[in-house]
Design brief:
single chain, mainly alpha, 16 helices, Amino acid/polyamine transporter I
Length: about 450
């Protein structure tokens, strides 16, 4: 099969992949916890993180439009070893993130079948493993089948439910139903004395992660130099708009202390539809949310592995991991990843509560992802100096000072997110902060040492 026959992704398909990878209705309950001040945090998070990430990704993806995404950019800037470190962080972050998004899928299914199952760890673990191994099987049939699932899931399981909950929220307000939050100036601005203020901002930044993920599909994209910047622009607007309004819709209908991180979205839909005597619609919504969650997992199942595969081709991993099938799917990496996720998912059986398990894995995943972003922003800045003559179809304005400003803002946001990740929100009532921080620290150190050993020992 020649290279041109592999280019199956246009602007629409790439935008759908990006939106369904980043814009997750699953994130809405965690951001709804912060009430009406979430508007402030979303806008601040967009300025500090989402927009810098999109701008740097647009420049790098149009300038180095080849398969591999973040790995290629960091490799060009700092060499193979650091490039491997970057793609490792992007991949391993997903391994820790999979159980959280899959627990959302399981929690939604539980809400349809029997709400009590949402707190049954054995049910959650069983659903997580069945869904993830099924998605792995789909991705073994290549990018075309994966993209079809992404497009279908983005429209059916994300755009439709997200539009619906936003519409229900607007209808709730216009019909003068009681609101759980207020929209006064005092409520909209964060309380500077609130110890959770920076934890709130971290939660928002986490909901923006992944805007660069579609860039690993460069070999599958038609006219990547123009397609990537357009797709990123459309995605940023859609993501910011829907996350703000969707989070507010949950915050206005559910009391803060009753929002579940796993089943909160279904609880919100139930509250809305019961008020309008349309409770029969809730199971249908649940099915749509499951489809959307599956689509999000599908995008992340294959995308980081594309970069890891390019890194392996550069000699960072044993040749065993280079194996592809006739659909150009990285067989060894997909199966190895599924086995890793299977082991990690068993943590749900060990930790004392679902919400604690959910937040701990989410926090660790976010810190690992921030390490990748640190390398990406640094690469964006350094490549301007290292290759000033490189053709850049899209270029951040302002010359070298422009990229320094944009990348520098992103770096500061990443460092802040890593530090704040050690402090969980008070609403979770985690009994032993030391144990929480010990687990986070141990996981972070282990996941940093392992790729350094692999990359330094294997790569010449």
């Amino acid at each position: 099969m020649n290279n041109s026959s592999r280019r199956t992704l246009n602007t629409f398909a790439l935008t759908m992949i990006t939106i369904s990878s980043v814009d997750s209705i699953r994130n809405l309950p965690s951001t709804a916890l912060f009430g009406s001040s979430l508007i402030f945090f979303f806008l601040l998070g967009a300025v500090l993180f989402l927009i810098p990430t999109a701008l740097v990704s647009a420049e790098l993806s149009s300038s180095w439009a080849q398969q591999g995404g973040v790995y290629v950019w960091v490799r060009e800037a700092f060499g193979k070893k650091i490039g491997f470190l970057a793609i490792w962080f992007q991949w391993i972050e997903n391994v820790f993130w999979y159980p959280t998004i899959l627990s959302f899928i399981a929690g939604t299914l539980a809400y349809i079948l029997s709400p009590n199952l949402a707190n049954n760890k054995f049910f959650l673990v069983s659903v997580i493993l069945i869904v993830f191994w099924s998605i792995t099987l789909i991705n073994l049939y290549g990018m075309r089948s994966s993209a079809l699932l992404s497009n279908f899931s983005a429209i059916t399981g994300l755009i439709i439910p997200m539009t619906l909950i936003i519409g229900l929220g607007i209808l709730w307000i216009t019909n003068h139903h009681p609101l759980q939050i207020t929209f006064t100036t005092h409520a909209l601005l964060p309380n500077a004395h609130d110890s959770n203020i920076w934890v709130s901002l971290t939660g928002i930044i986490l909901s923006f992660c992944g805007i660069e993920i579609a860039t690993v599909h460069a070999a599958d994209v038609k006219n990547p130099q123009k397609t990537f910047p357009k797709s990123l622009f459309y995605s940023v607007l859609f993501i910011l708009f829907t996350l703000i309004l969707g989070s507010l819709a949950i915050a206005i209908v559910l009391p803060k202390n009753q929002i579940s991180l796993v089943a909160g979205i279904m609880e919100a839909f139930t509250a809305f539809f019961q008020a309008y005597h349309l409770a029969w619609i809730v199971p249908i919504i649940g099915i749509l949310l499951v489809i959307g969650g599956i689509g999000g997992v599908n995008n992340w199942t294959i995308a980081p592995l594309k970069g890891l595969l390019i890194s392996a081709e550069d000699g960072t991993l044993p040749s065993l991991w280079l194996k592809e099938n006739r659909f150009f799917a990285p067989v060894s990496l997909l199966i190895g990843q599924a086995l890793f996720v299977t082991l990690l998912t068993l943590l749900f059986l060990l930790l004392p509560s679902i919400n604690e398990s959910y937040w701990l894995l989410n926090a660790l995943a976010s810190q690992l992802y921030m390490l990748m972003y640190l390398l990406m922003f640094a690469a964006g800045i350094w490549l301007r100096f290292k290759y000033p003559a490189q053709i850049r179809p899209y270029k951040i304005p302002g010359g070298k000072w422009g990229i320094i400003l944009v990348g520098g803002v992103g770096i500061v946001a990443c460092l802040g997110t890593i530090i704040i990740g050690f402090f969980p929100p008070e609403i979770l009532h985690i009994p032993d902060l030391f144990d929480y921080e010990l687990i986070i620290s141990s996981g972070l150190i282990a996941m940093m040492i392992l790729p350094i050993l692999i990359g330094w020992l294997k790569t010449p």
